Amino acid sequence: MEVEWLEIPDLLVDEPLESRRGHCFQCAAETVLYKPEYREWKVTHGLCVGKGPIEGIVFAHAWVERGYICYDPVRDMTLQKSMFYSVGQVTQTQTYDRDTVKRLVTRTNLWGPWNKRYRPYLKEKLKSDALVPLVL
Predict the structure, then answer these.
(1) What is the mean pLDDT of residues 10-25?
(2) How far apart, in Å, are the Cα atoms of 35 and each of 12, 15, 17?
């Protein structure tokens, strides 16, 4: 049975920014699944290096990108991809198109990460709740 992806009434990605912190995988998936202007964008998972209170800590993060632009729905921040990757010290990325995100969310019942290599770097492993991956 095909799920109608536009029937979800309450999206975390529509909540205030402070509610989104720590939920980057859900926010990135919701953005490409439910926001018409982002349907052609790809969800990207990767490792970032923390700034501020989590300086130097490597953690898993999710955002969306298209071409040379990255959008972080947790921060509601759009940057050139080169700047986003440089400031966040992004490594080990994996991208997913909208159809793949749909399939993986349905099959796993998870917003992500779907690749097990990111799991040791999830937020729960951090001592601080103050995720600040991009400080310009």
Answers:
(1) 82
(2) 12, 14, 17
List strands edge to edge, sheet with 42-49.
77-80, 69-72, 58-66, 42-49, 91-96
| Token pair belonging to 82 | 């080169």
User: Six-digit token pair at 103?
Assistant: 């399939």
At a CB cut-off of 8 Å and minimum separation 6, what does 76 contact?
A: 17
Long-range contacts of 114-122 (CB under 8 A, 24+ apart): 114/45, 115/45, 117/92, 118/45, 118/47, 118/60, 118/92, 119/60, 121/47, 121/58, 121/59, 121/60, 122/59, 122/60
Q: Which DSSP helix (H) or strand (E) runs through 32?
A: helix 24-34
Q: What is the pTM of this model?
A: 0.83
Model confidence over 35-93: pLDDT tens digits?
Answer: 999 999 999 999 999 888 888 889 999 999 999 999 999 999 999 999 999 999 999 99
**C-alpha closest to that of 94 among 119, 122, 115, 79:** 115
- Cα 24 to chain centroid distance, Å, stands at 4
Q: In 53-114, which ranges are continuous DSSP H helix? A: 81-88, 98-108
